[in-house]
Amino acid sequence: MSAIKAAIVxxxxxxxxxxxxxxxxxxxxxxxxxxxxxxxxxxxxxxxPSLRGHYDLKFCAPDIEQLAACDVVFFATPHGxxxxxxxxxxxxxxxxxxxxxxxxxxxxxxxEQWYGQKHACPELAADAVYGLPEVNRAxxxxxxxxxxxxxxxxxxxxxxxPLLEAGLISPENxxxxxxxxxxGAGRQGKTELLFAENNDSFRAYAAGGHRHLPxxxxxxxxxxxxxxxxxxxxxxxxxxxxxxxxxxxxGTLAQDTSVEALQALFEKRYRDEPFVDVMPAGSHxxxxxxxxxxxxxxxxxxxxxxxxVVVLSVIDNLAKGASAQAxxxxxxxxxxxxxxxxxxxxxLP
Amino acid sequence: MSAIKAAIVxxxxxxxxxxxxxxxxxxxxxxxxxxxxxxxxxxxxxxxPSLRGHYDLKFCAPDIEQLAACDVVFFATPHGxxxxxxxxxxxxxxxxxxxxxxxxxxxxxxxEQWYGQKHACPELAADAVYGLPEVNRAxxxxxxxxxxxxxxxxxxxxxxxPLLEAGLISPENxxxxxxxxxxGAGRQGKTELLFAENNDSFRAYAAGGHRHLPxxxxxxxxxxxxxxxxxxxxxxxxxxxxxxxxxxxxGTLAQDTSVEALQALFEKRYRDEPFVDVMPAGSHxxxxxxxxxxxxxxxxxxxxxxxxVVVLSVIDNLAKGASAQAxxxxxxxxxxxxxxxxxxxxxLP
Amino acid sequence: MSAIKAAIVxxxxxxxxxxxxxxxxxxxxxxxxxxxxxxxxxxxxxxxPSLRGHYDLKFCAPDIEQLAACDVVFFATPHGxxxxxxxxxxxxxxxxxxxxxxxxxxxxxxxEQWYGQKHACPELAADAVYGLPEVNRAxxxxxxxxxxxxxxxxxxxxxxxPLLEAGLISPENxxxxxxxxxxGAGRQGKTELLFAENNDSFRAYAAGGHRHLPxxxxxxxxxxxxxxxxxxxxxxxxxxxxxxxxxxxxGTLAQDTSVEALQALFEKRYRDEPFVDVMPAGSHxxxxxxxxxxxxxxxxxxxxxxxxVVVLSVIDNLAKGASAQAxxxxxxxxxxxxxxxxxxxxxLP
Amino acid sequence: MSAIKAAIVxxxxxxxxxxxxxxxxxxxxxxxxxxxxxxxxxxxxxxxPSLRGHYDLKFCAPDIEQLAACDVVFFATPHGxxxxxxxxxxxxxxxxxxxxxxxxxxxxxxxEQWYGQKHACPELAADAVYGLPEVNRAxxxxxxxxxxxxxxxxxxxxxxxPLLEAGLISPENxxxxxxxxxxGAGRQGKTELLFAENNDSFRAYAAGGHRHLPxxxxxxxxxxxxxxxxxxxxxxxxxxxxxxxxxxxxGTLAQDTSVEALQALFEKRYRDEPFVDVMPAGSHxxxxxxxxxxxxxxxxxxxxxxxxVVVLSVIDNLAKGASAQAxxxxxxxxxxxxxxxxxxxxxLP
Lengths: 349, 349, 349, 349
What we know:
Four copies of one chain form a homotetramer.
Chain A: E1 4-9, H1 14-23, E2 29-35, H2 44-47, E3 59-60, H3 64-68, E4 72-75, H4 82-91, E5 95-98, H5 108-115, H6 122-127, E6 129-130, H7 133-141, E7 145-147, H8 151-165, E8 174-180, H9 195-198, E9 203-204, H10 212-223, E10 232-238, E11 245-252, H11 259-269, E12 276-278, E13 296-301, E14 308-315, H12 319-333
C-alpha cells in the first residue's frame, strides 16, 4: 500500500512539532506539506532542531490545491481557523483531523458562548465525529471530519466513563481537579508563561470557567446511563512541567461499592483498549510514565472506604491529549493497525 | 528586654535551617544551641552555606542541661522524638514548640493508629496547645507545650474554617486536593525524592490515607457549628517545586449563598489576622507569592454559580506550614509583636 | 534622620519588583513613586501579589516634577531610557542610580557599537561612577550618577580581580564560562523564554558576543597591573532556574603559585568586604546559597596542580547582580550602614 | 535472522531502564534476562511503569548459565562489578558490552588511582575495545569486550577530535566546561541528589578532579597528531535537569584559522557519521534537541575572531552517553544497520 499523504496546517506550535515527531516513525504516512504564514520558507528543522535529519520540509504558505491533493489534513491551529478552511477540503473529498476546538461541541450556541465568536459552519459541526476512540471507535472509521478531543477532556472523560456508564456515581456533583504542563498553553510568547514566572511555583487558573468544561460535560452526558444531568466542577492548574496532565477525579458513590468491584469495573471496561492502562489498586500514576506516548494510565481508589471514589488519570497533553490521539484516529480512519507509530515506551526518567 | 534563649533539637532538616534563617532576622531571639547527633561538631554554616556569616554555631549532641537553660526549645525532629524528651524539659519549666506530629492529635488511639507506635506521654498530649493562631491565639499565650500544625493541615484548615464556622457547607463530603513541594518530604536521601525522579513530572501519593487527615478532621470538627461529622477526602500530590503548598478545596453549599457573600465572609473572618490574606474574588494565588513567608493567601470561588464552593489556599510548607508559624507562636507565647522576624515579603520571582 | 525619598522608573520588570522587595525591609528609604506608562494606575500589589500588605503604591506615569522631588531615582529600565531622562534629574540635584547599561561603558564608540544606537549624553557617561563597591567604594560616596554593573560583569569581575590585581595570571586568554537563571532575560513575553522552551534543557547563547563583554574587559583592564591587554572569551548559558549566576573562570598562571597562596590572596583581598565570601578551598558554591541576597560567594581551585587556576563565583542576578547592589550603592552614597536592608540570609532550600 | 539474545546485568539503574526503553523498539534484539539481586522477582514494569505493556520480564538474581546462553550481555553496573564477572562470560564466548568504567582506561595504574581499588583483570582491559564508533568503528566490529565511553567523555571527545586530529589547537591547555543532568549521578537515594537540593540551583562539582578526566585525556591523546601532551582542565557542573550533557570546550588555535575553515573541518570530519550533527555556524545546540536520542549536536564558534575556538557539544547522558551508544555498538558488533532502534527524533518540547 502506498503511504497516506498528510498535510499539517499551522505547524509551528507544539501540536505541530509533536505530529512531526510521531509521524517520523510512522511507516504508513508521508507528510507532504506543513503550513505557516509567518514561517513560510523556513525549514522545519531550523525551528525545531530535534527534527534535523528527519525532515527536509519547509513551512509553506497555505495552498488549497496542495492541501486538496492530500489524503488527510491535520489542523494544528488556534480555534476559529479550521472552521473557515475545512468546508472546501471536505467538499473536495479530503479527510480532516482537527486538533482545535472548532468541531468538538455539538451545541453551537454553547460553542459560541464559550469561544466568544460566531461559528462559521455549524452544519459541519453536526457531522463531525468526536475522536475519543474508547467511546466512538465505530464512527471514527468513516469520519470525514474528525474533531480531536481536548487534553483535559481526554484525561477526565477516560477516568469518569466507567463509573458513569455503570451508573455508580451521582452525575450532579462531579469534581475534576486537574493540572497541566506548560506546553498545554502553547508556544506564544506571553509573560505569564515565562520560565521565570512558573518555575518552582504552582497555581490554579480559569477556576471560574475553562473552555474544556462544556466539552467534558457533553461527553460525560453522552455515556451516563442513570438519571440526572452531568454537572462538573473543573479546576485546572498550571504545573511547572513541560508536558503531562494529571487529573484527580472525585465522585460520590450512588450505592455502596467495594474498591475491588471498582477495580474490576475499570479493568473490564478498558481490557481491549490499547491505550488505556488500568494500574493495580493503590497505584499513583506519574505523568512521566506516559511522557511522549498515547497512553492514559488510570488508578481507582476509595479512601477510608467512605463513599467518595477517587480516580487518578494521567496522559501526555501533547500526545494522547492531542497529536498522538490524532494519529490513533488516523490509524482507525484509514484501516491501519491502531498503534502504528505509537509503540514507543515513555521517556523515563 | 534581654533576648529569649532558644535551642533547636534536630536541626539538620529543612525545618531546622528555616528556623535559623528566620531567627537570624528576629531581634528578640537568640539561638544558643542546635543539636544533631550525626553532625555534632559540624558548623551549621558548613551544612548550610546560606548561613555563612550569620551563625557561628556548631551542631552539638543533645545535652539536657544545655536545653534546660533555654527559655524555649524547638523540636524539628521526626515524630516520636519529642515525646521522649519533652516531659523533662516541661518539668524544668522550659517552654516547648514542637514542629513534629507528636502532640497534634488529642485522641491517642488515633495517633497510635496513624503513626504506628505507642505514644510515650499521652498526658502531655492532652495539655498541648494546637498552634494555629487563627483559631487558638488565646490558649497559645500561656502554652507550655505548643504543637505546631502540619503543613497541609494549616493550608486546608484556613481555607475551610470560615465556611464551617458559619455552617455554610455540608461537613460530610469535604474534598481537599492539595499539592506540596518536595521539601515537605524532608532531607533524607530516598530514591523517590531524587531530582531525576520528580523533575518534569507530577503524581499523587498517599491517596489512600495520609497522616495529616486525622489532624485536619480534628481541627475542622472543632470549628464546625452545624450538625454532622466532618469527613474529608484528602489527596496529596508531589509538586516538582522545592517549596509551597497549594490546596484546592471543594465544599457543597448547604444553602444558596452568593459569591459576594462568600467573599465577605472570608474577608470578615480574617480581617484582623496578620498572616491570612483574602485575595480579591476571582484570584488564583500562586505558591511563589508566599515563598519564604508566614502568609497564607486565599481565594474563594463559586464556579458556574452552582452549589460547589471552591477555595484556593497557598502557603509555604516550610514557613507558615512549619518554622515561620512556630515563630509566630513563639511571638504570641512570649508577648512579642506577632510579626517580629516575619515581615519580609516573599521572594518573587 | 528622615527617610531618603526614592523613586523607581520602570518598575514592572524583575529588577523593579526586587528593589521593592528589598526596600520594604530598609528602614532608611521610602519609595514615593514607581513609574510605568503601560501599568499606570495599577496597584503594584496587583502585578506582584508578593507585595500585598507591603505597599499601597500604584504605578504612575513618569512625571519629572515628582521625580525631581526625590533624593534618589532608580532606573530599572531597558537601555536607552535612562540616558534620555537622567540629564534633567542630575541638573536638578537628584542623585541617580541606573541599573541599565546606559552609563557603564566609558568609551562611547564601544557603547554605540554594542548597543546599536547613538548615545544621548556622552558627557554624563564620563562623570558616571561604576558602582562596583569592591573596586570603587571611594568614588561611589560622592557619585551623582551611579552606573550599576551588569549581572555577569559583577560575578566575573569579582572572581578575576584578585588574580589580575596581583598580576598572577596572563590577561590575554581569560575565559569566563557563565550561566544565568531566566529572570536575567527579563519579563517580556518571548517564545524563547517560555517555560516549555527552557525547562529540563540547557544551552549557550550569544556565544559569538554578549553585550557584557566590553563592560567586563573595561573593568578588568582597570585593575590589571601587569603587561598586556585583557582579552576575555565569555560564553553565557541559560539555566533552567529563575535566579542565579554561576561563573566558572579560567586563567593561566603566569608563574607557579600554590593553591594555598591563591586561597590566601582571595581571603586577604576580600577580608573587609561585607558581600564577598571566599569559601574554603575545594568548595563548590551553589547559586541557591546566595538566593535573594547581595552576597557573592567565591571558591578558587587549581585542578591537578597544573598551571590553570579555576575560580567559581556565584551571585543572584537580580540581587548582587542588580537591585541589591543598587541598594548597597545607595547605602554608600547616603552614608548609611552599607548592609542596611541587605542582611537577610539566602532562601535555602 | 533470529533475534540476538541479550541480557542486562544490574538493570535497576537509569542506564538499565534506558536500555529497555530503546530495545523495546529494536527489531533485532530480544532481552531474555535482566538481573538485580535487590529486586529479584519484581516485574520490571513495577519499578518502571513506563514499561508496562512492553515487557513481561522480572528482575532475576544473576545466573551465570542464563547469561552464558545469551549472545551479548550488557553490564549496567557500578564500577568494579563487571571486571569480576566478565572473564567467565568472555571465556564462554559471550560478547560483553560494559557501560561501566571498568575497561575504559588502558593504563591500569591510572585506573586504580582514580577508582581507588585494585583492578580484577588487567589482561582483559588490554583487549577491551573503547566503544566510540566515530574513532574505533573498525575495531568495534570484532570486539569481544566493548567498553562503552562515559557520558562526559563522549560529548567532550567528539567536540575536540576534529581540532586535535588536524593539529589546529594546542593540546596542553584544553578546557572542558561541562554540565550534566541529575540522572548522570544515578538512582541511589542521596541527600545531595534530592529534588529539594537541586531544583532552581546550579553548582560545579568535582572541580578538583573527576574520574572522567583520565578517560578523556587518553582518548584525545590517541587522536592528537601534533607535538605535546594533551592536558585538559575539566570542570563538571550539576544541572537542574533530568537528562542532558552540555559541553562548552575551549582551545587555543595554534595557527590562524578562519571560522569558515573550522566549520568546514567539522562538517567534513563528521559527514558520514549517523549520530554526529554539525549545526550551522553560530548555532547554540540545546540539550533537549537530543533528548532520548543517540545524537550528538555540535557547533563551532570563534568569538571576536580571536585565537580561542569554542565548541558546543550536546548529548543525552543516558543515550549517546550510555545506553543508546551501547546499542550503536551492538549494531556494529553484530553487523546490523547502525541506527536500528535508534531512529526516533528527540522529545521536544
